[in-house]
Amino acid sequence: MKNLLLSLAGLLSLSAAMPALAEPASAWDSLVAPETARDELDALYKGLQSAHFDLYAHQPEEAYDARYQAIREGFEEPISLYELALQLQKFTAFGHVAHARIDFPQAVYDSYRDAGGKTFPIYLRIVDGRAYVGEDYSGASDIQPGDEIRAIDGIDMAQWLARTAQHLSADTPYIAHSLLEFSFPKYLWVELGERDAFQLTLHREGEGRFQVEVPGVTRSDIEIASQTMPERFALNPNARDAKMLTDSVAYLRPGPFYNVEDPENLWDASGFRTFIDDAFEQFLANEADTLIIDLRDNPGGDNSFSDLMIAWIADEPFRFAADFLIRSSDEAAASNQARLDANPDSVAGVSGRFAEFYAETPRGEVFSFDIDYTSPREGVRFSGDVYVLINRHSYSNAVNTAAIFQDYGWGVIAGEKTADMATTYGAMESFTLPETGLDVGFPKAHIIRPSGERKSDGVTPDLPIRTPIIASEKDDVLETLLGLIAER
């Protein structure tokens, strides 16, 4: 069974929150004194003000100061480390920058689920701010995939999306909603605790509103229910595929831009190079005149991989950013130095260059870090028409890759707009809070997409193709694109 929830587990592990501390769940029950909680909040805010490229890019300083004071005044009694982590993450996420974050204490949720804990039984599809039934594990016969969820327990769904999104660092509601499609049951549990049942108000096209009670479900309930769910098409984020779809149309799904086959050598691109070279040699041997590059549900990775693919098509030198601006700070310099200490040989590489800039740039000032250009591949290259498929779950370097094709004019971008940004605050580093040991991620850089556009935004397709709320047994988006190519 090609189940969306299960098939995207690999993508979720990269794009959603991971454990903040390598501690058992019981460690999160330890109590933190109110004065310590206040000290940790102070250290967090000061650290973000010092290290973040632009803490107030999306949230005015006055609003951030007010949030800081309100949380600080609320620390009047001892608080568990788990609750403190949640409060500090929400404070960090208040700035609406995806790469400023404290990771969710996943061990607490995993322990709860391992013990048979129940959660909301429906995984959502969120389109234009409206929530629909994606995968339903409730066993309720009167619910259909695609039904819109208008309310849970009498509270409007928009309020639930806003409450759960507080736990996610995200530049826009679109990014938050793309992540909630994987994690809404977890964050609803954070808000409500365990519930045996939920009262839903639903709306079905042509039939109007109706109400249904659904039970909370355990992991075993989900496993049992998944056995009887209908077969639906789902993308595998880890798959690499190269084939001819027709006599003239080639299809390339490059998969992650890292060595997913050998996690111990995550950034070894030799196997990927062989895959890409073999793929293009196959396409040229079959005289393909059109190529579809599928970056949907791609978790991203490093441009040392994607550049190998782009170089088969490029007709001039290219790079993933028009500018790579970095704010000098003690926190960024310390994080970079830790990498150098762990791998002294890296002094000859990028980390060594960073160290030189941090040494010569006054704290708080910004320097431009030169990004090397990649040359087109020598010899024969693919010169046909290129279409690049993207969707809301194209992340990280997959977004940069789509931006390169669009900005250099090497391909038509098709599908739906990415939630992740092409111009973004990124290149995340981290510092550690002194008492709790919580790691705080922050963006040290402002990465400007190849076109030079400085506004933070995703990649908007040239050829919009709406992803169905409910997938059929086949790849409807790819079929639509093939039809449009045939018409052209």
From TrEMBL:
The keyword Signal appears for this protein: yes
Any one Pfam family match given in the protein's UniProt record, by short name: Peptidase_S41
Keywords, in A-Z order: Signal
Record bears the keyword Signal: yes
Signal peptide: 1-22
Annotated ranges, domain Tail specific protease: 276-464
Protein name stated in the entry: S41 family peptidase
Taxonomic source organism: Ponticaulis profundi
